[in-house]
Prior knowledge:
By secondary structure, the protein is an alpha+beta fold. It has helices spanning 8-39, 98-107, 140-165; strands at residues 44-58, 67-78, 81-85, 113-118, 126-127. It is built from three helices and five strands.
Amino acid sequence: MATRHLSGPAFGFAVGVPTTLIGIVFVVFLYLAYQRAKETRSWLPRPCVIEKSEIQWAKTTPHSPIRYRADIRYRYRLGDQSHTSTRIKRVDGSSADRKTVEQVIRNYPPGSIHTCFVDPQNASFAILEHATIAPIYTIWFPCLFILGGLGIIIGGTRSRSTQRNS
């Protein structure tokens, strides 16, 4: 009884296409993260005064761990208008580590003056810190998946054509 093995072009496509697609998805994700982080570097720097700097905590459910977040409010001027913002980064999140949030709070005590970055398209949207541009430095890794997937596809196709010529 003959057994069928997944080989040649079928194997190349079955393994190579998903591998390539996974690589493409991660390259796009990392590139978009880099673009978002780079965009804020062109925003308008403005002096701002920290008005409030506290730690907030919450539990999603009675049995979930406590999550902490920095609750910071600051005031800045753009033109002749005064604005307030509460964002540290473009996307703020919480942390299970209270010490991490305490460090953020120590960096922004009430009454201190810092530079915030204001979105020129939306004067009421400002941040205190830029996101990292590190995604662009790691984009090479998913590119290996793209190359590997394409190599599997080509290798599967070539092995079948080589077998036919023998």
